[in-house]
Amino acid sequence: MKFAVLPLFLSLAALSSAATEERKRAPEAWLPSGGSPNGEEGVVLTFFLRSDDTQIKAEFLDRSNPRSDNFGKWLSNEQVHSLTAPTAEAVDEVTRYLSSFGSVTSKTPNSDILTVRTTFAKAEEMLDAKYGTYSHKETGHKIHRSMSYEIPSEIREHVALVGPTTRFPKPSQAMKLKSSDDDESLKSYSNSPDNLRALYSVNDVLGGTASKNNQAVTAFLGQYYSESDLAKFWEKEFPAGADTPIKLMGDATTGRAGVESMLDIEYMPAMGALNPTEFWGFSGASPMDDADEPFLTWLSTVSNTTDDEVPLVFSTSYGEDETAEVPSDYADRINTEFMKCGLRGISLLFASGDSGAASDAGTCPGDKFMPMWPAGSPYVTAVGGTTGGSMPESAWSGSSGGFSDVFAAPDWQADVTAAYAANTDDDMPDSSYFNATGRGFPDIAAQAVQYPVVVDGITTSVAGTSCACPCSSGIFGLLNDARLAAGKSSLGFLNQILYSNPDALNDVTEGVQGGCGRTSGFPAKKGWDAVTGLGSPNYEKLLDVVMALP
Prior knowledge:
The protein has 550 residues and is of the alpha/beta class. It is 28% helix and 21% strand.
């Protein structure tokens, strides 16, 4: 299985505040397809302006802390953007400069994200870049990217990142195991909605009782939705979910269904049944067929969606090798977007990855385990994988997890991650393989194998943490429904609640993660571990916890 990792080894220190970003080669999954885009072909460049995140970070941690008097007192989108607003001078200077290359649009209420619709010829002139055309070796999807770019000196002090440039998007692709409606193994061991609901104490609970409790899945690069496949899934697997409202958002929603996309849109509303569910699809091309960067487009769209309309839970299966691919300017600026979501009461869940402790290529460069981004961000909830289909669960060997090389362990998890890293049992990997003081991930886990998914009218069994993520996300959608129906706030950033109440999750103590060569990855242990986090959700126990909160 290929998760969304982009293998390339760059120095974070060298790129921490550099005006130039460059790479030596494209990721293994992307092959040069010859030539370059036509100079007159359109492209939408997204510019993320720098901002001081000191105040928003303090507010984010305070309002998501269940022990704080301010817990759950979320801010409006307008209030959030007032905390992160760049100076008027910065916006004016960047806008004026970009206007000489094309049409400029503000994508957020405070103009901290700007886009310019231009041509590739002008983009190359502006960014001192040379775009080439690349084709994904598995899907055939084509994109245009540059091996380097430089932020123009005229706006350098105001801009943190620009895309699409050197980053090669690659969403998770759920691993197809079987494709047969008649396969007996699917009947004897299947993580169907009924099995998952029983396993995680959801049972017959349905949502849809509270207003404005939308939940959403994301899809990138040609992963489409099929109404007929979803209807067949409801008929075969979970008729009780058939009345769940579905809404399509984004520039790429309908077409030939993808395994990943249908997995997400079938299992989030199967677990969070009757909660209005949205499919946010982004292709990497705008409605005018201009190229863009889908992950950045998703973030800017969330930032520009009103409080009445924005989903309160997002499930996303997307990731990259952390230290290889994520310059700190980029990570810091994207983290600001994550915090903006949390302060609005939005929960962001990301699949942790499917390569165990290694990179997507199964290697450990420099004899070091490879952390994942954004799963390793301290501002999202990372979801790992388990297996077995019944209690007690075991860690799934493909579940990515470990310790960030960029971000320190936040206060809300530092004690448990330090205790795990200090474990001297024989099955623990040598400490030289990981950063023992880094942010530990995943935070939670759920079943990651044997999910029956309907694609093109056929039931296919799939695996990956991209199964676990929508499963868990739907459960938190139900918890939001209960709180909102009782006149309480949504849950927002989940991690401080979870780490304060570990007994509300099903601890996983068996199994070991895949590693590199003869070196095994991290083992599951009592308490938090670097393959299943705190364990899997127990809806009934979590409901008691969240309903006791203000």
